[in-house]
Design brief:
The chain is an alpha/beta fold. The protein contains 15 helices and 25 strands. The structure holds adenosine-5'-triphosphate (ATP) and magnesium ion.
Length: about 500
Amino acid sequence: MGNHLFDAIRDAARDDSVFIELTDGRTWTYREVLSFSARLAGAIASLGVQPGDRVAVQVEKSAEALVLYLACVRCGAVYLPLNPAYTLAELEYFIGDAEPRLAVVAPTAKEAVSPIAARHGAVVETLDAVGGGSLIAIADNEPNDFTDVDRDADDLAAILYTSGTTGRSKGAMLTHGNLLSNALTLRDHWWFTSADRLIHALPIFHTHGLFVATNVTLLAGASMFLLPKFDPDEILSLMARSSVLMGVPTFYTRLLQSPHLDRDAVTNMRLFVSGSAPLLAETHVEFGRRTGHAILERYGMTETNMNTSNPYDGERIAGTVGLPLPGVTVRVVDAATGKPLPPEETGMIEIKGPNVFKGYWRMPEKTAAEFTEDGFFISGDLGTIDEQGYVCIVGRGKDVVISGGYNIYPKEVELEIDRIEGVVESAVIGVAHPDFGEGVTAVVVRKPGALVDEAAVLMALGDRLARYKQPKRVMFVEELPRNTMGKVQKNVLREQYAGLFV
Ligand code: ATP
Ligand code: MG
């Protein structure tokens, strides 16, 4: 039968070509990655990990950590990466929920994690940020080849927990088939070849940096600069030797702050991809003006991998997430009735295709509730599809504000606020209100030195938005709270302003 995902990766591997280049100049060839992943797979198996067992990994970003993902795939384990920023209490939730056989953590965390792991039946090994640790020591004694465990398309390759933007993180069960089909689709859709070199500055515990960036590079036999974190100066200096950057919107707003971002800086680059959070149309336009490149925005989720993408060789429309990827069906339905809506009408985005996950880990009822009878996944995102098929995300269903019985889509209000002179960006939330149920509340970031105030915002919106959509209050902040993936944390804002109208 073979190993569905890894066989494809092995077939695309290009022997002595470089797969990973680190910032200190050290490189990993495909051959080295294959043999190291074999030794690591041997180590994992020697620790008692059976096919289907989970391997939880909470470590700093490194080449070794990336190869650990491949090792898990090879030995049939279910890879479960975790944000290094999670606290011990959070870690206990994930370990208790996923019950991994093995937990790999930083050496400094071993003592604290061990009792938690012991409570849930996991052994603990370590991996540090520079490729040392107890797991590596075990792998050093393993052979350079490993008989890959048979896995078919329907077997689990990973459990990725969602970002927890709208509530507690849920474990999304992703199969070999989910990951491979989406990576092959993206490779072809974005014209990836072995000539490409990706600037990889994303975290590797999230679908964007782990699956989109890594699997696409692997399946193209391409190479990547693996950076520990996002550093605009470093990225600008690597562009001369790279061809693709994948980023979250904050990468692009921060690159735009550099005076060194211009056409000369990007002459070797062929593609800039953005996703994981909405890219402001203004950022798209400004980036195009400075560099001549239209950022390619795409839309995905932990549960579904990537769903839509602006075209590589067609029109990339700012403010949209493009067209459904080949093989993926996207529709917009009336959230109440489930009936598909005509073009341009706002409703719930639903997705079907080989990219869509198998369900939430140990949450059969939640899984059942999030799929329609005809097999579409209910994304929780609201959007529209235009006549040409371009999808536009309006926001999350959970962020809709219901005030005085009316539904208000925050994005519509935010776009109007963002147009006001002196405003950088805004977030609109619903806050409990004694008369209206929820009161529309705008949280606004001003440009440095801008004088725009609450009255000015309300005045500007006066003839642009129906009265019920207008904010009852406008609050000003230095910056919006964001998580590592650049997502605005509206739950944090809702908590912060919970008492505003009482
Ligand atoms: P949770 O499901 O735990 O609340 P989350 O949905 O933020 O967290 P992820 O799976 O990391 O967790 O993020 C997927 C979401 O990110 C999508 O549902 C969508 O709301 C948002 N998203 C991704 N790409 C884009 C994009 N290009 N434009 C707008 N939103 C995007
Ligand atoms: Mg989600």
